[in-house]
Design brief:
420 residues; alpha/beta; Quinone Oxidoreductase, Chain A, domain 1; Rossmann fold; 2 domains; seven-stranded mixed beta sheet; six-stranded parallel beta sheet; 31% helix; 23% strand
Length: 420
C-alpha cells in the first residue's frame, strides 16, 4: 500500500469515527397547530394532526425553533451526510409565513415538526450496511464512500405506484419530500437513501472550496431545467426567453436558458438590485414592470418576435397574463408559458390564441430524472449558480432570515454555511 493511499484510508477512518461518536446535532424544526379550515375533509394522503397534502388548509401558527436532537440513525440502504451548505428556498419562507388568518402560506405537502431545508450538499460520514454490497452488484465505476461530497433530491417516491412504474416519480401519489414531510437538511446532519444521492466530486476541480455552495444550488437548477427542457420542450439556439421574477428561481431560469443557447433573455423584475443580479446571471435586457410596459418592451427587445419561452417564476401569472396572451397573438407561433411560481388568483384564457398558433400553457414543479444533466453542465461551468448568492449565514440566523425574506427584499439566494 502506498503512503498516499494509507493516508487516505486513515482519513476516512477518522471521518467515520467522528460521525459515530457524535450523539446530538443542532437543527431547525417547524412546528404548527392542527386547526382545519371550515369544510376541510381528510384526504387519502392526510394524517390527522401529523401531515397534510395541502398545508395551508389545516396548519396554523407556524413557528420555527432551533433544537438539539439525537443524531439520526440510518437504515441499511441509507447514508448519513454531514451538511456543509443548505440554501433557503422560497417554499421554506412560505411554510414559516402566516396568512391573514394565521395559517401557513404554503399550499402543498407539510408535516408538523419536521426539520426544514431541501437544497443542500455535504459529505457522507456513515453508510448503511447494505450500501457497499449494492454498489458491487451495480458494478459502478464511481462509488460512494466515506468522505464523498454529495447532494440529494428531496422527492422520495414510493417506487411502486403507476407513476413510479411509468418513470414519473415527481407525480408519485405516495411520495414524501425531504424538508416538507420528512426531516430535511437545515441541520448538522441529514439522512438520505442512496438511490436519492448524487456525487458532486466533479465540482471540486472547478469550484474548490465553493463546491458545497454550488452543490446546494443543484436542486433549484434541476427543478428549473426540468421545467424548461423536459416539460417546456426547450428552445433552439438563438430563440428568445423571458423570465418573470428575479429571485433565485428566476436567476436559475436565466442560467438554464443561456446554457441552452437562447439568443436574448429578458428579465422582468421590479427591484433594481435583483435586476442587476439577473444581469450577472446572463440576462441581456432588464424590465422594471412598475415603470415600463411589459409587452411593449419585450416586442422592442426582440424586434417584434416575442419569445419562444415565457418562464413565470414569481407567482404573479394573473398580473402578467394579459400581456403574455397579446405576445402569443403577435409573436412567434408555438410559444410556451411555463408556470413555476406559486401564487393566488386565476387567469382567463382565449382559446383561439392557442388553437390558431399552437401556443401552450404548462406548469412544472418536480426535478427527478435530470440531476446528472445539471451536474454535468455545472461541472463544466456552463452554469455558475454562485452568482445568485447574496448572503452566507449560520444556522442560528435562520429564524430571523425566514422572517426577513417574507417581505420584499434585495436578497438573492441565502445559503447556510455555518452549522455549529
Amino acid at each position: 500500500m502506498t503512503r498516499k493511499k494509507r493516508a487516505t484510508n486513515i482519513k476516512k477512518m477518522k471521518t467515520k469515527k467522528r460521525a459515530t461518536n457524535i450523539k446530538r446535532m443542532k437543527a431547525i424544526r417547524l412546528f404548527m397547530d392542527w386547526e382545519p379550515r371550515e369544510g376541510f375533509k381528510l384526504g387519502p394522503r392526510d394524517i390527522e394532526r401529523r401531515r397534510a397534502q395541502e398545508g395551508n388548509k389545516v396548519w396554523r401558527n407556524p413557528r420555527v425553533k432551533i433544537v438539539t436532537d439525537p443524531l439520526p440513525k440510518i437504515k441499511p440502504y441509507e447514508v448519513l451526510i454531514k451538511v456543509r451548505a443548505c440554501g433557503i428556498c422560497g417554499s421554506d419562507v412560505l411554510m414559516a409565513k402566516k396568512d391573514l388568518e394565521g395559517y401557513t402560506s404554503y399550499g402543498y405537502i407539510m408535516a408538523n415538526g419536521v426539520i426544514i431545508g431541501h437544497e443542500f450538499a455535504g459529505d457522507i460520514v456513515e453508510m448503511g450496511k447494505k450500501v457497499k454490497n449494492l454498489q458491487k452488484r451495480l458494478k459502478r465505476k464511481k462509488k460512494f464512500n466515506i468522505g464523498t461530497p454529495v447532494t440529494a433530491q428531496c422527492v422520495i417516491p414510493c417506487g411502486s405506484c403507476q407513476m413510479c412504474k411509468d418513470k414519473k416519480p415527481d407525480l408519485c401519489f405516495l411520495n414524501e419530500e425531504r424538508g416538507f414531510s420528512k426531516d430535511g437538511a437545515m441541520a448538522e446532519y441529514v439522512v438520505a437513501d442512496i438511490k436519492e444521492v448524487y456525487s458532486i466530486e466533479s465540482y471540486r476541480k472547478r469550484y474548490g472550496k465553493d463546491m458545497y455552495l454550488v452543490g446546494a444550488l443543484t436542486e433549484p437548477l434541476a427543478g428549473v431545467y426540468k421545467a424548461i427542457v423536459e416539460v417546456g420542450g426547450g428552445l433552439r439556439p438563438g430563440e428568445n426567453g423571458v423570465v418573470i421574477g428575479g429571485g433565485p428561481i428566476g436567476f436559475s431560469a436565466i442560467g438554464v436558458l443561456k446554457a441552452l443557447g437562447a439568443g436574448k433573455v429578458i428579465l422582468s423584475e421590479p427591484l433594481k438590485h435583483r435586476r442587476e443580479k439577473g444581469r450577472l446571471m446572463g440576462a441581456d435586457y432588464l424590465i422594471d414592470p412598475l415603470k415600463e410596459n411589459l409587452k411593449e418592451k419585450i416586442l422592442e427587445y426582440t424586434k417584434g418576435k416575442g419569445a419562444r419561452i415565457y418562464f413565470e417564476a414569481a407567482g404573479v401569472a394573473p398580473k402578467v397574463y394579459s400581456d403574455i396572451e397579446k405576445l402569443f397573438q403577435i409573436g412567434r407561433p408555438e410559444s410556451k408559458l411555463i408556470l413555476f411560481g406559486h401564487g393566488p388568483g386565476k387567469i382567463e384564457i382565449n382559446p383561439e390564441v392557442f388553437i390558431g398558433n399552437y401556443n401552450v400553457i404548462t406548469g412544472s414543479h418536480g426535478h427527478c430524472g435530470v440531476w446528472d444533466d445539471v451536474i454535468r453542465m455545472v461541472s463544466q461551468g456552463i452554469i455558475d449558480p454562485r452568482k445568485m448568492i447574496t448572503h452566507k449565514i449560520s444556522l442560528d440566523q435562520v429564524p430571523d432570515y425566514l422572517k426577513k425574506l417574507q417581505k420584499p427584499t434585495t436578497e438573492g439566494k441565502v445559503v447556510i454555511t455555518k452549522f455549529k
